[in-house]
Amino acid sequence: MADRLIYRGNKILNRVVLSIVLFIYCAACAQADGAPIAQRRPRYELGRAPSAAEIAALDIDVNPAGAGLPEGQGTTATGATTYALKCAACHGPSGEGIDKSPRLIGTVPPPGFAFASDASAPKTIGNYWPFATTLYDYIHRAMPITAPGSLTSDETYGLVAFLLERNGIVPATMVIDAKSLQRVVMPARRYFVRDNRLGSPTFR
Amino acid sequence: MTNPEHDQRKLTRRDLLHSAGVAAGVVIAAPVTNLLAQAVAPKTSATVAIPVDASRVPGLPSGTLGERSPFEKPALAPLGITTGATNTPHQNLRGTITPADLHFQRHHNGIALLDPVKYSLMIHGLVDRPLVFTLDDLKRFPAETHTYFIECAGNGRAAYRAPKPEMTPQDVDGLTSNCEWTGVLVSTLLREAGVKPAATWVLAEGGDAALLSRSIPIAKMLGDAMIAYAQNGEAVRAANGYPARLLLPGYEGNMSIKWLRRLKLIDQPNMSRDETSKYTDPLPDGTSRQFSFVMDAKSIITSPAAPERLSSPGWRPITGIAWTGRGRITGVDVSVDGGATWAAAELLGAALPHAHTRFQHMWQWNGKPAMLMSRARDETGYVQPSVAEYRRVRGPGTDYHFNAIRSWRVAADGAVTFNG
User: Which residue of A12, A185, B25, B403 is most buried, as measured by CB atoms within 10 A?
Assistant: First the structure.
């Protein structure tokens, strides 16, 4: 008797579980975006494993914690030389910007970070860039625009030192390398906030 | 349109390759201004004849491409841009699909030309199995096809900062385009590689001369993000990321990395230049909004619009496009009196998520001055803001995501001008 009751109980439980599973399954089928089908797909085992050298050749990015910063170093002095040679023609001898090449140097932020009220306020490394490591990452990958990827790490560190110093962020004596760069705090960093537009129809 | 018999029109050589033997009505000549033609062949010109009566002479034989009618010359503008933008001529378009050769272009260091045989996409970082895929590998995965808009975050900047009466829909909002894209879901590739729990972001990097890079939240990459290798049914155009590009539905275009060469799974955003110095939105409260990925709901009337001139009073459709990064457009309101009164426009066809939706509102112009406006609504209840509200909330100097209501002034003589 007791056994039969348990048996019947189990049967009911099984039915409940089965119908829940079927319900979820059908709800998933009903979704138009195809995600459930994708979830039921196998792994296709296409592609191949890259070698360590292949990864290293492309793995050039640098993050704010300093991950990815290579060996090497530079100073304002070495940077000034490289800048005059490889950058000044476009960005101007004092980083003032020419035509489409943006202004890079300018230490005076408009009062209260007032860029939204003044479209003509130039955004520079000194008054707008929130992270110093971005300078290394960007210059090394993209500049000079006519020969991207041509700068050595020493040259890049020097340019970073030079641009940070001219923007009044680090002293002229500072050696910039992987260790020191990740410790540089940019003045504009505190002004950046995350997106607050979503989850509400209100215009923000 | 004037009578072709009296019309001298310019045609390209490719329009006219097979024109021999056609009874001459009009003779037309023009230089070839095609990207590849410029790259591989010297400029050339030719003439073609437009018959007086096309029903009385045999037509042209078929050619290698289905060319536009010699009378139609939609064109991207401005040209010759390597670090900047080239806009879609929305005033020339009527449906929702943007022809691939009229898709807007925004480059940070020119159009990269990549060999599809040498192309590879690497996935590495916080994954169980780093992988490299060839283009052929990508095409061997199950494909998805979707119609999506891509809009540059800076679309509408000139119209907001310095509106001019002569601005066309192309000048105002030409940095949004809408194509059918086919490719593989990023999530499919990530399952091959195996995502480690610590991975919260993905760095996407292009193989162009800017090595453009952006950090993307892992949720988007496991959702509707795709890698597209086909655009409107054919290979993605060179300027749009051939042979394969990232496509993030509803997100600002800069993140849909073209010429995609690498996805790296990471545990914090990289803070690349294009998510810090650029593509951030200064706000009147003295902050700057970062990672503002989703494009706000927006619409623009594409006809009547500058440089059109209404030929006579009477009925005509007010037609345009609406779109939202939040999903589907649910309605568009049209005003002909500068926003005093609004009427619900008709949506043509299905309003697809993250796609341009065409609207129309039949209007009987009485020959008096009018002010035309359109206002989009989306499925989240979001309503496109007025210029005044936009200015109050975002400020005159804000840098991206310009989605205020656009207006067109119709003068008594039928001239249509942009009114901000």
Answer: B403
Contact B2, B49 (CB under 8 A): no
Q: Specify whether the CB–CB gap between B328 and B303 falls below 8 A.
A: no
If you write DSSP's letter for every residue of chain A in order, what string do you get?
-HHHHHHHHHHHHHHHHHHHHHHHHHHHHH-TT-HHHHHT------SBPPPHHHHHHH-----TT-TT--S-EE-HHHHHHHHHHHTHHHH-TTS--BTTB-------PPTTS-GGG-TTSPP-TTTT--BSHHHHHHHHHH-STTSTT---HHHHHHHHHHHHHHTTSS-TTPPEEHHHHTTPBPGGGGGEEE---TTSSS--
DSSP state for residue B386 in the 8-state scheme: P
SS (H, E, C) A44-79: CCCCECCCHHHHHHHCCCCCCCCCCCCCCEECHHHH
Residues counted in chain A? 204
Domains of chain B listed by start with CATH number? 120-288 (3.90.420.10), 298-418 (2.60.40.650)
Region of B254 on the Ramachandran plot (φ > 0 left; ψ -120 to 50 alpha; else beta): alpha
The reply to whether A5 touches chain B by the CB within 8 Å rule is: no
pLDDT of residue A107: 72
- What's the mean pLDDT when you consider all of chain B? 91
Question: Could you report the per-residue pLDDT of B340-364, keeping only the tens digit for each?
Answer: 999 999 999 999 999 999 999 999 9
Using CA atoms, how far apart are residues B383 and A177, in angstroms rounded to an integer? 49
Residue A191 has which token pair?
């002004």
E strands, B152-287, in order: 176-185, 201-206, 213-217, 226-231, 234-235, 245-247, 260-266, 281-282
Query: Residue B202's closest CA among B182, B187, B184, B181?
Result: B187
Cβ-based neighbour number of residue A42 at 10 Å: 6
Chain B residue numbers with beta carbons less than 8 Å from the beta carbon of A119 are: 161, 396-397
Residues of chain B contacting residue A197, judged by C-beta atoms under 8 Å apart: 289, 292, 294, 296
**Is residue B160 helix, strand or coil?**
helix
Task: Answer for the pair A13, A5: CB distance below 8 angstroms, yes or no.
Answer: no
Angle value at C-alpha B322, between B183 and B212, nearest 5 degrees: 45
Is the CB of residue A134 less than 8 Å away from at least one CB of chain B?
yes
* Phi and psi at residue B185, to the nearest 5°: -65, 140
Superfamily of domain A53-191: Cytochrome c-like domain (1.10.760.10)
> Using the 8-state DSSP alphabet, how is residue B292 labeled?
-
Pair B139, B116: CB distance under 8 Å:
no
| Three-class SS state of B343 | strand
With an 8 Å Cβ cutoff, are A194 and B132 in contact? no
Q: Do residues B264 and A166 lie in contact, with contact meaning Cβ atoms separated by under 8 Å?
A: no
- Determine whether the interchain pair A38/B290 forms a contact, defined as Cβ–Cβ distance below 8 Å: no
Q: Give the tokens for residue B343.
A: 């009427």
Peptide bond before residue B243 is cis, with ω within 30 degrees of 0: yes
Q: pLDDT for B60-98, tens place per residue?
A: 999 999 999 999 999 999 999 999 999 999 999 999 999
Q: Cβ contact (<8 Å) for A46 and B133?
A: yes
- Predicted ipTM of the assembly: 0.88
